[in-house]
Every structure is written in structure tokens, then in C-alpha cells.
Amino acid sequence: MLYYLNGLFVGFLILANVLAVKVFSIGEWIVLPGAAILIIFTYPLIDVICEVYGKEAGSRTVRTGLMAQVFAVCFIAIAIELPPAQAFAHQQEFEIILGGSMRVIIASLVAYTVSVNLDVVIFNKLKEKHGNGKLWLRNNASTMLSQLIDTVIFISIAFYGIMPFKMLLTLFITQYLFKFLASIVATPLVYGLVFVARKRKGLEPSHY
């Protein structure tokens, strides 16, 4: 089960970096990157891994995700620089969709490294305090705080000085509100995955 959780986590991260190019809106005020629909699942996956397999397994998954993102950036850069064949008429579109800007890439990697490691630390501190009880508390508390840090770091590095402050503030509020609500909605998913993972590991289901 751990292999499946790791695979989903890394796959979601890589795909999120591709989807980040698309920006969508909900109504007139909520504007979000396409990556938001995937990133909200990465934190619950890490929490499930920490809950069932321990802090070190969670930390290894975070490191694996970082390595995968760095390799993906390097190979995408190489693919962009390769001379396009005559039959390939979409080099410009390929660069726009997959290239991104170095500033955004750095923002994404820094935000990920800080926030997801923070999620692991907070989750395990609360687990040490409460044992197997109050899974909902450590899941939501660790995710909500780490998502807050993630949003602040990413928006600050990627867009500060480029967008007006008012627009930055709107972007921050809408993104974090979306992530905050998504964390609550995803709580039953965490419980379900923990139940399945414990069962696959041969452990008795716990009272959460």
C-alpha cells in the first residue's frame, strides 16, 4: 500500500506542475491555478503515510517528491532545447506549456520543500500528543498551517513585484480559502485511506 501512496503522491506533484499553466476562475473573484485541483490531495496522502507508516516514511516520500520534481524540470528543459523536427510544428506551444519561468519553478520547489516538511513535523507532533486519537485534528491542523506557508512562499517568490499588491492579496486569499475548505472536505478520504492502509498492513483498525 505504501508503494501506491508514494506513486500517487509523486505523480500528483509532477502533474500539478504541468497543470499550473492553466488558470481557472469560479465566479468573478476566485482565480486559481489548475494545479490546485491536485495539490490539495498531496497533503492528505502525506498524512496517511505518516499515520500508518511513521514519520521517517513520510520524510522519505517528501524527499522523493522533491527529487522527482527536480528531475522533471531538468528533463523538460532538455526536451525544450532539443531541435524540433520539421514535422513538429508546435515548438512554441510546447515551450509555453511546459517551460514556465525559472522564478515560478523556484517558487514552487521552495514552497513545496518548506511546507510539506512542516506538515510532516506538525502531524507527528500531534500524533505523539494524542496517539491514534483525533486524526481529524492532526490532519486538518498540519495541512491548513502548511498550506498557509506554502501559499505565502509561492505567491511571494513567484509574483511579488510583478503584480500589484492588491491583486497579490486577492490571489492569496482565494487560493488559501480554497485549500482550507478542501482540507476539510478531504478529511473522510484520509480516514478511508488510513483504514485501508492499516488493514493491508495487517493492523487492527484504530478508533480515531
SSE topology:
Layout: H1 2-19, E1 23-26, E2 30-33, H2 36-53, H3 55-81, H4 91-99, H5 102-130, H6 135-159, H7 165-185, H8 187-200
Antiparallel strand pairs: 1-2
Helix pairs in contact: 1-2, 1-3, 2-3, 2-5, 2-6, 2-7, 2-8, 3-5, 5-6, 6-7
Number of E strands: 2
Widest beta sheet: strand line-up:
1-2
Total individual domains: 1
Principal-axes geometry comes out as globular
Proportion of helical residues: over 70%
Description of the structure:
This protein has helices at 2-19, 36-53, 55-81, 91-99, 102-130, 135-159, 165-185, 187-200; strands at residues 23-26, 30-33. The protein is mainly alpha-helical. It has one domain (2-200): Arp2/3 complex 21 kDa subunit ARPC3. α2 (36-53) packs antiparallel against α3 (55-81) and α2 (36-53) packs parallel to α5 (102-130). It is globular, with a radius of gyration of 18 Å. The mean pLDDT is 88.
Short description:
The protein is mostly helical and 208 residues long. It is 77% helix and 4% strand.
Can you tag this structure with a few keywords?
two-stranded antiparallel sheet; Arp2/3 complex 21 kDa subunit ARPC3; single chain; 4% strand; 2 strands
